[in-house]
């Protein structure tokens, strides 16, 4: 990574004088996914965690924080963004293109397995009748 | 808890010194806001300052319920000789090494004090101790991590920290100045006492300092800076109070 330069094209900061950045990931509740929320500057991982706590944890519910050194994140190139484009005709790649619920229900009935979704629906109906 | 008027006086004395320490160190730490070494640390240190002031407010509220003035009056209308904070918290912020070291030494004492108070027979302070445990735990993590970082970074940073520790240590020992009612508070099972707290504190900070390649000054050089608990303060406290209370004193009855 290039260091900042002044007008004479000399590097302004000496190497290692500039702290590296760490990506911060925030988890709201235990079990939730960690979500990227920003970066902090720090000389090492421990310091990054300590600084991330106040920068990103103090005004929202927090269960856990991760920090990852920015240079350790490998990214795709924006010039390769076209790799994400895809022809829309391949419906066989979508879950919605598959019909299997009737077969699942049949299997459940044959083997006496309760259909929990159905039970919930019936329960809800019952409740509304009572009202 | 069914304390007599006399016993409640002892409790109040204890509460005043704890809250005054927190208010004054909180105010001092807030002087770094906007001037911290980097943005993230500026935020962290300011946040810690706010925590301390918030903690002092909680204790002033307890005092108010015991018949003392309201919290704003307690905080802003007293002069230096009516404050019971230790000298450590009054000193100007100096350079960052001093502020970090002060925070390190103070926070550990504070954490241990509230750990002891969590079992206090005076229920309001026991309840508060349990409530603010997490806050102070972070204050310790923050201080320990910085110390370890700077103690192990370079010769210069380690030397500066050691010099600061040498200069700050006796001030920090002033935290444990015995109060007038140590025995009574212990008998009432309100607070075990400053002596016990000091012993625990030395035991706790020693290994952290060692990990940071720092040494506690040898015991024969210890000269605790006492007097703060009796209202005898350094020249730095009154100017701090004047500044802190400047706006409030213009019109103490103003509605905010």
Structure commentary:
The complex is a heterodimer of chains A (131) and B (256). Chain A has 131 residues and is an alpha+beta fold. Chain A folds into two domains: 20-71, Ubiquitin-like (UB roll); 89-130, no CATH class. Helices cover 29% and strands 17% of the residues of chain A. Chain A has three helices and three strands. Chain A has helices at 45-57, 101-110, 116-130, and strands at residues 20-27, 35-42, 64-69. Chain A is elongated and about 80 Å long. The mean pLDDT of chain A is 86. The longest helix of chain B is centred in the first third of the chain and has 27 residues, at 39-65. Chain B starts with a helix and ends in a 6-residue tail after the last helix. In chain B, 66% of the residues lie in helices and 0% in strands. Chain B has a single domain, classed as Ferritin, core subunit, four-helix bundle (Ferritin, Up-down Bundle). The mean pLDDT of chain B is 96. Chain B contains eleven helices and no strands. With 256 residues, chain B is mainly alpha-helical. Classes of the chains: A alpha+beta (131), B mainly alpha (256). Chain A binds chain B through residues 19, 40-44, 46-47, 50-55, 58, and chain B through 38-41, 43-44, 47-48, 138, 141-142, 145-146, 148-149, 153.
Largest sheet of chain A: 3 strands, antiparallel
Whole-number mean pLDDT of chain B: 96
Rg of Cα set of chain A: 26 Å
Helical stretch tally of chain A: 3
